Amino acid sequence: MKTVIVTGAAGFIGSKVSKELLKQGYTVIGIDNLNDYYDVQIKYWRLATLKEENKFVLYTADVENIEAIRFIFKFHQPDAVINLAARAGVRYSMENPHIYMTTNAHGTLNLLELCKEFGVRKFVLASTSSLYAGQEMPFKEELPVNTPISPYAASKKAAEMMAYTYHYLYGLDITVFRYFTVYGPAGRPDMSIFRFIKWIMEGTPLQVFGDGSQRRDFTYVDDIARGTVLGLKPMGYEIINLGNSNPDTLSKTIELIEEYTGKKTEIQYKEFHKADISATWANISKAQNLLGWQAKTNLPEGIKRTVQWMKDNWEWIQSIKLL
């Protein structure tokens, strides 16, 4: 395997996965539509860290446009596809559910069709821990996930099912990763850790949905990227959790951010959102057994690195509007 298409290459996880692939000697064909769901300054910053690599090529294209993507497949003849292009965000998916289905489900279908057409045997799909709502923890991949509580989760379930269909019918080798609350430097400004750090650094009160006792299996982005690249090995069809497997409360996260920024904050508690999950916790035995993977970065170290990145880039980050 030498050439890999990475969709969503300007995204938080996509840029890190691309960086990891380049480090391992792959040629990376990045695809991203550079939409403005959140401030594109962050996307351009991420891309700047990739464009210095001579084995990275970026196409500004949308996975919903199958003809544009077909040209890229035909020209580059990739060996594998890692599909990280997605509309993310549980709450926003309730405001605009249609675009979540067209990107997350239909966009995945387009890529699977092109893999079939061009003989690309390996496909890696990013999915989500949001599918486990209401299930017993720690979440195992074998649990039934037939009760998604947001359009975002439902669209990811649709993508997983379509991927299985193409494995069954056409023999595509597919690895589906269910990611657990990814965070780290250059993260998404609609996610809690980015928002909390920015608010604390600028002296704005924090808005917390719930009482802060909700737990998340926060997983550092470098660990997620490393695991995703490991998923390029032949697997047949597998769904695998990638999580830290050590949930922490939002309150603890805020305390760590206060410690590393050196600032105290005021917290405004709001009603817990109906589409949120109260807790997540990944069983990662499958990732350990099949990939030899487990997270290496604990929450204190990950928060410390993320805060430092925000400090180093504060000159332009302070102008970013949070969603």
UniProtKB/TrEMBL annotation:
Coiled coil: none annotated. It comes from the Bacteria. InterPro entries: Epimerase_deHydtase, NAD(P)-bd_dom_sf. Residues 4-243 form the NAD-dependent epimerase/dehydratase domain. Keywords: NAD. This is Nucleotide sugar epimerase. It comes from Syntrophomonas wolfei subsp. wolfei (strain DSM 2245B / Goettingen).
